Amino acid sequence: MHDGSGRILVQGLSKNFGPINAVQNLHFAVEPGVVTGFLGPNGSGKTTTLRMILGLIEPSAGTATIGGLPFAQLPNPATVVGAVLDSQGFHPGRTARNHLRSYAAAMNVPDQQADQVLELVGLGSAATRRAAGFSLGMRQRLALATALLGDPQVLVLDEPSNGLDPEGIAWLRGFLKSFAATGRTVLVSSHLLREMEHTVDHVVIVSRGQCVYNGNLEHLRSAQRSRVLVQAADPNTLVTALQQSGLAVEHLPDGRLAVLDSDSRTVADLALQAGVALYGMQDERVDLEQLFFQLTHGQYTGGAPHAGSAWAGGPAQWGPQSAGFAPSPYQQVGYQQPEYQQPGYQPPPGGPPQQDHQQRGGSGGFGGGF
Ligand SMILES: Nc1ncnc2c1ncn2[C@@H]1O[C@H](COP(=O)(O)OP(=O)(O)OP(=O)(O)O)[C@@H](O)[C@H]1O
Ligand SMILES: [Mg+2]
Protein backbone atom coordinates (compact mmCIF):
# COMPACT_ATOMS: atom_id res chain seq x y z
CA MET A 1 0.00 0.00 0.00
CA HIS A 2 1.38 3.41 -0.91
CA ASP A 3 -0.13 5.63 1.67
CA GLY A 4 2.49 8.35 1.81
CA SER A 5 3.95 6.99 5.02
CA GLY A 6 7.46 6.57 3.63
CA ARG A 7 8.84 9.87 4.82
CA ILE A 8 12.60 9.93 5.33
CA LEU A 9 13.75 12.16 8.15
CA VAL A 10 17.40 12.98 8.70
CA GLN A 11 18.22 14.81 11.92
CA GLY A 12 21.64 15.97 12.99
CA LEU A 13 23.28 13.22 10.98
CA SER A 14 27.08 13.11 11.08
CA LYS A 15 29.74 10.61 10.15
CA ASN A 16 33.46 10.78 10.78
CA PHE A 17 35.94 8.38 9.28
CA GLY A 18 38.89 9.06 11.55
CA PRO A 19 39.85 12.65 10.82
CA ILE A 20 37.49 12.92 7.83
CA ASN A 21 34.18 14.63 8.57
CA ALA A 22 32.31 12.95 5.74
CA VAL A 23 28.86 14.14 6.87
CA GLN A 24 28.28 17.00 9.27
CA ASN A 25 25.04 17.69 11.06
CA LEU A 26 22.64 17.12 8.17
CA HIS A 27 18.96 17.89 8.64
CA PHE A 28 16.43 17.28 5.91
CA ALA A 29 13.17 15.52 5.15
CA VAL A 30 12.31 13.56 2.03
CA GLU A 31 8.59 13.73 1.46
CA PRO A 32 6.44 11.16 -0.30
CA GLY A 33 4.84 12.19 -3.57
CA VAL A 34 7.81 14.12 -4.99
CA VAL A 35 11.24 13.28 -6.31
CA THR A 36 14.00 14.64 -4.09
CA GLY A 37 17.46 15.13 -5.52
CA PHE A 38 20.42 14.68 -3.21
CA LEU A 39 23.14 16.63 -4.92
CA GLY A 40 26.77 17.34 -4.30
CA PRO A 41 30.18 17.04 -5.91
CA ASN A 42 32.38 13.98 -5.58
CA GLY A 43 33.28 13.28 -1.98
CA SER A 44 30.61 15.55 -0.54
CA GLY A 45 29.07 12.79 1.57
CA LYS A 46 26.11 11.63 -0.54
CA THR A 47 26.81 7.90 -0.47
CA THR A 48 27.79 8.03 3.20
CA THR A 49 24.47 9.69 4.02
CA LEU A 50 22.49 7.18 1.98
CA ARG A 51 24.33 4.34 3.67
CA MET A 52 23.37 5.72 7.06
CA ILE A 53 19.73 6.08 5.99
CA LEU A 54 19.81 2.45 4.87
CA GLY A 55 21.37 1.23 8.10
CA LEU A 56 24.57 0.09 6.39
CA ILE A 57 26.83 2.22 8.56
CA GLU A 58 26.38 3.67 12.02
CA PRO A 59 26.16 7.44 12.26
CA SER A 60 28.69 9.18 14.49
CA ALA A 61 25.78 11.35 15.61
CA GLY A 62 22.16 11.98 14.73
CA THR A 63 19.41 9.81 13.34
CA ALA A 64 17.80 8.79 10.07
CA THR A 65 14.33 7.28 9.99
CA ILE A 66 12.03 5.94 7.31
CA GLY A 67 8.36 6.17 8.13
CA GLY A 68 9.38 7.06 11.69
CA LEU A 69 11.66 4.06 12.24
CA PRO A 70 15.39 3.51 11.81
CA PHE A 71 16.01 1.13 8.92
CA ALA A 72 17.11 -1.67 11.26
CA GLN A 73 13.71 -1.60 12.97
CA LEU A 74 11.60 -1.77 9.81
CA PRO A 75 9.45 -4.91 9.98
CA ASN A 76 9.93 -6.02 6.37
CA PRO A 77 12.53 -3.63 4.96
CA ALA A 78 12.55 -4.87 1.35
CA THR A 79 8.88 -4.05 0.98
CA VAL A 80 9.39 -0.63 2.52
CA VAL A 81 12.64 0.51 0.88
CA GLY A 82 14.19 -0.37 -2.45
CA ALA A 83 17.75 0.86 -2.78
CA VAL A 84 20.52 0.92 -5.34
CA LEU A 85 23.88 2.00 -3.99
CA ASP A 86 25.99 0.36 -6.63
CA SER A 87 25.30 -1.86 -9.58
CA GLN A 88 28.21 -4.26 -9.24
CA GLY A 89 27.01 -6.95 -6.89
CA PHE A 90 25.59 -9.50 -9.31
CA HIS A 91 26.58 -13.12 -9.46
CA PRO A 92 28.28 -13.17 -12.86
CA GLY A 93 27.02 -16.61 -13.81
CA ARG A 94 23.38 -15.92 -13.07
CA THR A 95 20.92 -14.74 -15.64
CA ALA A 96 19.03 -11.54 -14.92
CA ARG A 97 15.87 -13.53 -14.26
CA ASN A 98 17.58 -15.96 -11.90
CA HIS A 99 19.29 -13.14 -10.07
CA LEU A 100 15.91 -11.57 -9.43
CA ARG A 101 14.28 -14.86 -8.53
CA SER A 102 16.91 -15.53 -5.89
CA TYR A 103 16.14 -12.15 -4.36
CA ALA A 104 12.42 -12.73 -4.73
CA ALA A 105 12.73 -15.97 -2.78
CA ALA A 106 14.67 -14.26 -0.01
CA MET A 107 12.05 -11.54 0.15
CA ASN A 108 9.12 -13.92 0.00
CA VAL A 109 7.94 -12.32 -3.21
CA PRO A 110 6.33 -14.43 -5.99
CA ASP A 111 8.65 -15.54 -8.83
CA GLN A 112 6.62 -13.84 -11.52
CA GLN A 113 7.44 -10.51 -9.91
CA ALA A 114 10.97 -11.01 -11.32
CA ASP A 115 9.69 -10.90 -14.90
CA GLN A 116 7.43 -7.98 -14.13
CA VAL A 117 10.25 -5.79 -12.85
CA LEU A 118 12.50 -6.86 -15.73
CA GLU A 119 9.84 -5.61 -18.15
CA LEU A 120 9.42 -2.48 -16.09
CA VAL A 121 13.09 -1.52 -16.42
CA GLY A 122 13.31 -2.46 -20.09
CA LEU A 123 15.30 -5.66 -19.64
CA GLY A 124 12.55 -8.08 -20.62
CA SER A 125 14.44 -9.25 -23.70
CA ALA A 126 17.62 -9.82 -21.67
CA ALA A 127 15.99 -11.98 -18.99
CA THR A 128 17.97 -15.09 -19.91
CA ARG A 129 21.30 -13.35 -20.41
CA ARG A 130 24.01 -13.60 -17.77
CA ALA A 131 24.63 -10.44 -15.76
CA ALA A 132 28.39 -10.83 -16.38
CA GLY A 133 27.84 -9.72 -19.96
CA PHE A 134 25.71 -6.71 -19.08
CA SER A 135 26.83 -3.21 -19.91
CA LEU A 136 26.99 -0.60 -17.14
CA GLY A 137 23.61 0.80 -18.17
CA MET A 138 22.08 -2.68 -18.17
CA ARG A 139 23.52 -3.36 -14.72
CA GLN A 140 21.97 -0.10 -13.51
CA ARG A 141 18.61 -1.27 -14.82
CA LEU A 142 19.02 -4.70 -13.23
CA ALA A 143 19.92 -3.10 -9.91
CA LEU A 144 16.83 -0.94 -10.15
CA ALA A 145 14.74 -3.99 -10.95
CA THR A 146 16.11 -5.64 -7.81
CA ALA A 147 15.16 -2.60 -5.75
CA LEU A 148 11.64 -2.71 -7.16
CA LEU A 149 11.03 -6.39 -6.43
CA GLY A 150 9.35 -5.78 -3.10
CA ASP A 151 7.09 -3.05 -4.57
CA PRO A 152 8.57 -0.66 -2.01
CA GLN A 153 7.16 2.51 -0.55
CA VAL A 154 10.52 4.26 -0.75
CA LEU A 155 13.19 4.27 -3.45
CA VAL A 156 16.76 5.34 -2.64
CA LEU A 157 19.08 5.51 -5.63
CA ASP A 158 22.74 6.52 -5.64
CA GLU A 159 23.75 8.08 -8.97
CA PRO A 160 21.36 5.92 -10.99
CA SER A 161 21.98 7.66 -14.29
CA ASN A 162 25.66 6.66 -14.40
CA GLY A 163 26.10 4.59 -17.50
CA LEU A 164 22.63 5.17 -18.87
CA ASP A 165 22.27 6.34 -22.45
CA PRO A 166 20.06 9.36 -23.22
CA GLU A 167 17.07 7.16 -23.81
CA GLY A 168 17.69 5.37 -20.52
CA ILE A 169 18.01 8.69 -18.72
CA ALA A 170 14.74 9.91 -20.20
CA TRP A 171 13.10 6.65 -19.24
CA LEU A 172 14.43 6.88 -15.68
CA ARG A 173 13.16 10.45 -15.39
CA GLY A 174 9.65 9.38 -16.36
CA PHE A 175 9.80 6.32 -14.17
CA LEU A 176 10.86 8.19 -11.03
CA LYS A 177 8.24 10.88 -11.56
CA SER A 178 5.45 8.37 -11.99
CA PHE A 179 6.72 6.33 -9.03
CA ALA A 180 6.58 9.43 -6.83
CA ALA A 181 3.22 10.46 -8.27
CA THR A 182 1.69 7.37 -6.67
CA GLY A 183 2.47 8.84 -3.26
CA ARG A 184 5.78 7.09 -2.79
CA THR A 185 9.12 8.55 -1.77
CA VAL A 186 12.09 8.95 -4.10
CA LEU A 187 15.54 10.05 -2.96
CA VAL A 188 18.04 10.10 -5.79
CA SER A 189 21.63 11.31 -5.66
CA SER A 190 23.72 12.88 -8.36
CA HIS A 191 26.78 15.04 -8.70
CA LEU A 192 25.13 16.93 -11.58
CA LEU A 193 22.28 19.29 -10.91
CA ARG A 194 21.66 19.78 -14.60
CA GLU A 195 21.17 16.07 -14.99
CA MET A 196 18.45 16.15 -12.36
CA GLU A 197 16.76 19.44 -13.09
CA HIS A 198 13.90 17.96 -15.10
CA THR A 199 13.37 15.12 -12.66
CA VAL A 200 13.44 16.53 -9.17
CA ASP A 201 11.00 18.80 -7.40
CA HIS A 202 12.99 19.25 -4.23
CA VAL A 203 16.76 19.39 -3.83
CA VAL A 204 19.12 18.90 -0.94
CA ILE A 205 22.57 20.13 -1.95
CA VAL A 206 25.60 19.14 0.06
CA SER A 207 29.17 20.29 -0.03
CA ARG A 208 31.90 18.89 2.21
CA GLY A 209 29.30 16.94 4.12
CA GLN A 210 27.22 20.01 4.94
CA CYS A 211 23.92 21.16 3.57
CA VAL A 212 24.18 24.28 1.42
CA TYR A 213 20.61 24.30 0.11
CA ASN A 214 17.46 22.46 1.04
CA GLY A 215 14.37 23.51 -0.81
CA ASN A 216 12.31 23.56 -3.90
CA LEU A 217 14.19 23.62 -7.19
CA GLU A 218 11.79 26.24 -8.52
CA HIS A 219 12.60 28.39 -5.52
CA LEU A 220 16.29 28.03 -6.27
CA ARG A 221 15.55 29.27 -9.75
CA SER A 222 13.22 32.07 -8.79
CA ALA A 223 15.62 33.35 -6.12
CA GLN A 224 17.61 34.63 -9.06
CA ARG A 225 16.65 37.49 -11.36
CA SER A 226 17.71 38.31 -14.89
CA ARG A 227 19.61 41.50 -15.70
CA VAL A 228 20.38 43.46 -18.80
CA LEU A 229 23.64 45.40 -18.62
CA VAL A 230 23.54 48.58 -20.68
CA GLN A 231 26.12 51.12 -21.64
CA ALA A 232 24.27 54.32 -22.50
CA ALA A 233 25.37 57.71 -23.79
CA ASP A 234 23.11 59.38 -21.23
CA PRO A 235 22.56 56.99 -18.31
CA ASN A 236 20.49 59.38 -16.23
CA THR A 237 17.93 59.98 -18.97
CA LEU A 238 17.73 56.27 -19.61
CA VAL A 239 17.27 55.51 -15.89
CA THR A 240 14.33 57.93 -15.81
CA ALA A 241 12.77 56.32 -18.89
CA LEU A 242 13.24 52.81 -17.53
CA GLN A 243 11.87 53.69 -14.11
CA GLN A 244 8.85 55.37 -15.67
CA SER A 245 8.15 52.03 -17.33
CA GLY A 246 8.28 50.33 -13.95
CA LEU A 247 11.72 48.76 -14.35
CA ALA A 248 14.24 48.61 -11.52
CA VAL A 249 17.69 49.88 -12.46
CA GLU A 250 21.02 49.84 -10.70
CA HIS A 251 24.14 51.87 -11.45
CA LEU A 252 27.23 49.72 -11.81
CA PRO A 253 30.69 50.92 -10.78
CA ASP A 254 31.90 50.91 -14.39
CA GLY A 255 29.19 53.35 -15.46
CA ARG A 256 26.85 50.81 -16.97
CA LEU A 257 23.29 50.25 -15.85
CA ALA A 258 21.83 46.95 -14.74
CA VAL A 259 18.16 46.62 -15.60
CA LEU A 260 16.45 43.96 -13.52
CA ASP A 261 13.93 41.41 -14.77
CA SER A 262 13.90 42.69 -18.28
CA ASP A 263 15.35 41.82 -21.65
CA SER A 264 17.57 43.63 -24.12
CA ARG A 265 14.78 44.25 -26.62
CA THR A 266 12.59 46.04 -24.09
CA VAL A 267 15.51 48.11 -22.89
CA ALA A 268 16.56 49.00 -26.45
CA ASP A 269 13.00 50.09 -27.34
CA LEU A 270 12.75 52.29 -24.26
CA ALA A 271 16.18 53.80 -24.97
CA LEU A 272 15.11 54.60 -28.52
CA GLN A 273 11.91 56.26 -27.30
CA ALA A 274 13.95 58.29 -24.82
CA GLY A 275 16.42 59.28 -27.54
CA VAL A 276 19.38 57.75 -25.71
CA ALA A 277 22.13 56.14 -27.74
CA LEU A 278 23.34 52.74 -26.57
CA TYR A 279 26.93 51.61 -26.94
CA GLY A 280 26.34 48.04 -25.89
CA MET A 281 24.03 45.67 -24.11
CA GLN A 282 24.38 42.31 -22.51
CA ASP A 283 21.78 39.84 -21.29
CA GLU A 284 22.78 37.93 -18.20
CA ARG A 285 21.43 34.44 -17.83
CA VAL A 286 22.06 31.88 -15.16
CA ASP A 287 23.24 28.43 -15.94
CA LEU A 288 21.88 26.03 -13.35
CA GLU A 289 24.95 23.86 -13.39
CA GLN A 290 27.12 26.89 -12.77
CA LEU A 291 24.85 27.90 -9.92
CA PHE A 292 25.31 24.45 -8.46
CA PHE A 293 29.05 24.77 -8.86
CA GLN A 294 28.92 28.11 -7.13
CA LEU A 295 27.00 26.66 -4.21
CA THR A 296 29.42 23.80 -3.81
CA HIS A 297 32.49 25.77 -4.78
CA GLY A 298 35.54 25.20 -2.66
CA GLN A 299 35.17 21.50 -2.05
CA TYR A 300 38.57 20.83 -3.53
CA THR A 301 40.03 24.29 -3.63
CA GLY A 302 41.41 24.14 -0.11
CA GLY A 303 39.84 27.39 1.03
CA ALA A 304 36.71 27.76 3.08
CA PRO A 305 33.65 28.94 1.18
CA HIS A 306 33.18 32.67 1.34
CA ALA A 307 31.48 33.51 4.59
CA GLY A 308 29.21 36.50 4.69
CA SER A 309 28.44 36.53 0.99
CA ALA A 310 25.15 37.89 -0.20
CA TRP A 311 23.84 34.34 -0.22
CA ALA A 312 24.17 34.14 3.52
CA GLY A 313 21.45 36.77 3.78
CA GLY A 314 19.15 34.84 1.50
CA PRO A 315 16.28 32.54 2.33
CA ALA A 316 16.52 30.54 5.53
CA GLN A 317 17.28 27.32 3.74
CA TRP A 318 20.59 28.60 2.47
CA GLY A 319 23.14 26.80 4.53
CA PRO A 320 26.33 27.95 6.14
CA GLN A 321 28.50 26.95 3.23
CA SER A 322 26.87 29.11 0.63
CA ALA A 323 29.60 30.23 -1.64
CA GLY A 324 30.62 33.59 -2.98
CA PHE A 325 30.46 34.93 -6.48
CA ALA A 326 33.19 33.13 -8.25
CA PRO A 327 32.59 31.48 -10.54
CA SER A 328 29.47 33.29 -11.57
CA PRO A 329 26.36 31.24 -12.30
CA TYR A 330 25.68 33.39 -15.33
CA GLN A 331 26.13 32.73 -18.95
CA GLN A 332 26.76 35.92 -20.82
CA VAL A 333 25.27 36.90 -24.09
CA GLY A 334 27.08 40.01 -25.13
CA TYR A 335 30.35 41.63 -25.64
CA GLN A 336 31.91 42.54 -22.31
CA GLN A 337 33.24 40.82 -19.29
CA PRO A 338 30.53 41.37 -16.68
CA GLU A 339 31.53 43.54 -13.80
CA TYR A 340 30.85 40.95 -11.17
CA GLN A 341 33.73 38.99 -12.64
CA GLN A 342 35.96 42.02 -12.39
CA PRO A 343 38.01 42.94 -9.33
CA GLY A 344 36.21 45.05 -6.79
CA TYR A 345 32.69 44.15 -7.80
CA GLN A 346 30.19 44.39 -4.96
CA PRO A 347 27.07 42.28 -5.35
CA PRO A 348 23.76 44.09 -5.02
CA PRO A 349 22.30 44.11 -1.50
CA GLY A 350 19.25 42.06 -2.47
CA GLY A 351 21.29 39.02 -3.34
CA PRO A 352 23.60 37.74 -6.03
CA PRO A 353 23.23 38.59 -9.69
CA GLN A 354 19.91 37.58 -11.08
CA GLN A 355 18.80 34.92 -13.44
CA ASP A 356 16.08 34.05 -15.80
CA HIS A 357 15.82 30.38 -16.24
CA GLN A 358 13.29 30.79 -18.97
CA GLN A 359 16.05 32.30 -21.05
CA ARG A 360 18.80 30.17 -19.73
CA GLY A 361 21.05 28.77 -22.39
CA GLY A 362 22.74 25.43 -22.38
CA SER A 363 20.16 23.80 -20.17
CA GLY A 364 19.02 20.27 -20.42
CA GLY A 365 22.33 18.55 -19.97
CA PHE A 366 22.96 15.10 -21.21
CA GLY A 367 19.99 13.89 -23.20
CA GLY A 368 17.94 16.75 -21.86
CA GLY A 369 18.66 15.72 -18.28
CA PHE A 370 16.95 12.84 -16.66
N1 LIG B 1 34.75 3.84 4.50
C1 LIG B 1 35.37 5.02 4.44
N2 LIG B 1 36.53 5.22 5.08
C2 LIG B 1 37.16 6.41 5.04
N3 LIG B 1 36.67 7.48 4.40
C3 LIG B 1 35.52 7.35 3.75
C4 LIG B 1 34.79 6.12 3.72
N4 LIG B 1 33.66 6.28 3.00
C5 LIG B 1 33.69 7.56 2.57
N5 LIG B 1 34.80 8.20 3.02
C6 LIG B 1 35.13 9.62 2.77
O1 LIG B 1 34.01 10.38 3.11
C7 LIG B 1 33.88 11.46 2.19
C8 LIG B 1 32.50 11.38 1.55
O2 LIG B 1 32.46 10.25 0.70
P1 LIG B 1 31.15 9.80 -0.06
O3 LIG B 1 31.45 8.53 -0.76
O4 LIG B 1 30.02 9.83 0.87
O5 LIG B 1 30.99 10.99 -1.12
P2 LIG B 1 30.00 11.09 -2.36
O6 LIG B 1 29.34 12.41 -2.24
O7 LIG B 1 29.16 9.90 -2.46
O8 LIG B 1 31.03 11.15 -3.57
P3 LIG B 1 30.87 10.59 -5.10
O9 LIG B 1 30.13 11.65 -5.88
O10 LIG B 1 32.31 10.51 -5.56
O11 LIG B 1 30.19 9.28 -5.05
C9 LIG B 1 35.03 11.35 1.23
O12 LIG B 1 36.06 12.17 1.68
C10 LIG B 1 35.43 9.90 1.33
O13 LIG B 1 36.78 9.71 1.02
MG1 LIG C 1 28.92 8.45 -3.92
Automatic annotation (TrEMBL):
Q: Which InterPro entries match?
A: AAA+_ATPase, ABC_transporter-like_ATP-bd, ABC_transporter-like_CS, P-loop_NTPase
Q: Which domain of life is it from?
A: Bacteria
Q: Which SMART domains does this chain map to?
A: AAA (SM00382)
ABC transporter domain spans which residues?
8-233
- What spans are recorded as compositionally biased (Low complexity)? 329-344
**Region called Disordered, residue ranges:** 306-370
Q: Which UniProt keywords apply?
A: ATP-binding, Nucleotide-binding, Transport
Q: Compositionally biased, Gly residues: which spans?
A: 361-370
For molecular function, the Gene Ontology terms on record are:
ATP binding; ATP hydrolysis activity
Q: Which family does it belong to?
A: Belongs to the ABC transporter superfamily.
Record-given protein name: ABC-2 type transport system ATP-binding protein
- Native organism: Haloactinomyces albus
